[in-house]
Amino acid sequence: MTNTPTLARGGRHASAPGRGPSRGGRGKGLPVWSIPYVLLIPGLLVIAALLLYPMVQVAIIAFQKVGLPQISGRRPAEWVGTDNFTRIFESQIFWDSLRNTVVFAVIAVTMTLVLGTAVGVLLSKLGKKMSTFLVIGIMCAWAVPPVAQGIIWRWLFDAEAGMINWALNLLPDWLSTLVFGRADWTGEPWLNDAWSVYMVLIITVVWASFPFIAVSVLAGLKGIPSDLYEAARVDGATGWRTFWQITFPLLKPVFAVLTVLSIIWDFKVFSQLYVLMSGPTNREAFNLSMYSYTEAFKAPQKMGTGSAIALVLTVLLLVVTAVYIRQLVKQEEL
Amino acid sequence: MRIAKITATTVTTAALALGVAACGGGEAPAEPSAASTAEASGPAFAGKELTLWRLGDSNPDAQKYTDELVAAFQQETGASVKVEWIPWPQVNDKFTAAAAGGAGPDVTEIGNDQVPLWVSQEALAPVTDIVGSGDQAGIPKNLMGMETIDGETYAVPWGGGTRAVLYRKDWFEELKIEVPKSWDELVAAAKKVQAEKGSDVDGFAFNGGSDANHLLGSLAWTSGGEYAVKEGDKWVGKLTDPAFKAGFEQYTSLVTDGLSSKSRLTQNSSDIRTRFSNGKVGMYLTASWDLATIEEESKGKLKGDKLAFFPLPSKDGGEAQAFLGGNDIAVWGTAKEPEAAKEFVKMATNKDWGVRYATEGGLLPVYPEALAKLAEDPAQAPFAAAFAKAKAFPADPNWTEANETKAVLQNAARQVIEGKATADEALAAANTELEDILNQS
């Protein structure tokens, strides 16, 4: 990671001697120092149009009352100060959504990282053929689009026709009673309660996101010199010890990036939840994205409060990410 | 490190911004180009094209009526009409997109309880002059409570809708069940159906979806309850009244007594209809517009004398109070052809086409003499009887938010069914929330 800026600088210096004379010959043109910036302009323009402008709009709308008449231009938007924020902070749905969002992210990120690392380490121990086979297999799960993920797991957990209830009913009664305290799973409504919806959501999200972690860890492991492991083996270290003494410290930068990415992905899960609940039906199981969507786009449309929620979610995410990265910088892990 | 940080921040912001802000609205032309034509006579709108939104799932009867109406309109005025069918659960989303500046219709069918909301969003054009003259002057004014706001009428009643219990007559005959005359008999009938037809069958289906209040409302009104009453210019919630609570407990008992499965707390009447078509429901509250779709969905297996209606019975016998529903037809605010659109509405709601719309579409005609005639028909009598006692939801633009978006009472019912709150606690919370929603400006 630290190499990248150096390389970029090197590239700029390298181009300077070659360019200098030809520029002088034409008499006009850009000063050398500006070339990288000029080259960046097209990209920046695209980002500004597609990203910065909508973001600024969201921030503005969060302080306005905007409904359909305002969106269609029949009426000017009305400034309401911080009313939108007061309104959402007074709503129980907001606090439920916030709790759901945070608890879900903590559990899902942890499980994704643990499972992904475990599979990554496993992959590195397997032979070439088996490893390739597994990588292809798990990458299929990663490649499934979010809506399809939701549909797959919604079917599996369906109360009447779902495989999960069918499989649980196949367990011997004594075992099922011992583990779950019940033997009959016919018609168990998994997608009713907030807690069980989130259990299914966690399974869905972890299932679809651990392969990326596994493959990244595998790539990281390939870069660790194998003599370190040989030395550990000669010293008689256990697999557990080898992981914590060699693999983990050397892969810390990889884990840092993967953690940040996972936090970002899991905070803003929307499609899977939307499909699992078939739209914003059970408000106790909303997360912040779902709440924002419902406020902004369900009749009567309140784009103002919807944007306010989105803004809160953005700030929350930036704070979490910033704190985490700061922590890493302090420990000089990157 | 710096790269990682920048990447992280960019990815975060990009994803969030795209997720939420993708709706940046384009400026729509504010004023429709009102080509003020002279009095329509003959093919006054030759070459013009109207877009008509019909609501619900297209079925052969409705399709035939619409085709004939459109053909007659074209013959008379020269304007062609493009018909689009919008299933009920998508109606609010489609209206939203259209009102936000997307492609809207010129004329649309609209549920009467949706009118206040869309008027408040300035999505409908007034049609006061249509209901003031001609045939339409004969439509009783008490049917236009939802449509008239500050002296202007924004939609013309097209057909009255009220709901009754649709049941599997073939099952009832096979199992020797009498048509229920009281609530207890209905519960007993539902249990018997479940015992014989399998536990995955809903004896009487619980509706907890977007139109749940049609069922809850019937039960609550029958026991004497009200949602909210306007006192002065403020709505006062009445959900905590013992009368409302009695109806609410009847409603939740559909699930807690096992008449309907706990796994389908969010199904709306479209979902129930699909299950009914597949032989998984014994009874549910609906109207006869479902019949044609059921025949189609069941591939012709469920039709004719296998199905029948009876009025929802109240607790101590007698008929329950039903929801005063109905479909209207309105001119969209940003119609491209407002004059032709008005002409279309005028023709569609005249005595001839208006009565045909209702009788052929399984609704009740809004013209009194046609309604009186209909009450003599035994098949339609349950609806005519229920229509006479029908009541409406609070006529407020914010009702949709409480009814569908925030699903206030559906949420209260869920909490009671799952044992998280007592009926008193859930209704007290719902009452506060309902007042807040209805009274917001």
TrEMBL record, chain A:
Topological type in the membrane: Multi-pass membrane protein
TM spans (from-to): 32-53, 102-123, 135-156, 195-221, 242-265, 307-325
Chain spans, region Disordered: 1-26
Domain ABC transmembrane type-1: 98-324
Alphabetized Pfam families for the sequence: BPD_transp_1
Compartments where found: Cell membrane
InterPro entries with a match to the protein in the record: MetI-like, UgpAE/MalFG_permease
Keywords: Cell membrane, Membrane, Transmembrane, Transmembrane helix, Transport
Main location: membrane
Family from the record: Belongs to the binding-protein-dependent transport system permease family.
Protein name according to UniProt: Carbohydrate ABC transporter permease
UniProtKB/TrEMBL annotation, chain B:
Signal peptide: 1-17
Top-level taxon in the UniProt lineage: Bacteria
Annotated transmembrane regions: none
Keyword Ribonucleoprotein carried by entry: no
InterPro entries per the UniProt record, alphabetical: SBP
Keywords recorded for this protein, A-Z: Signal, Transport
UniProt record similarity statement: Belongs to the bacterial solute-binding protein 1 family.
Protein name: Extracellular solute-binding protein
Organism: Nonomuraea ferruginea
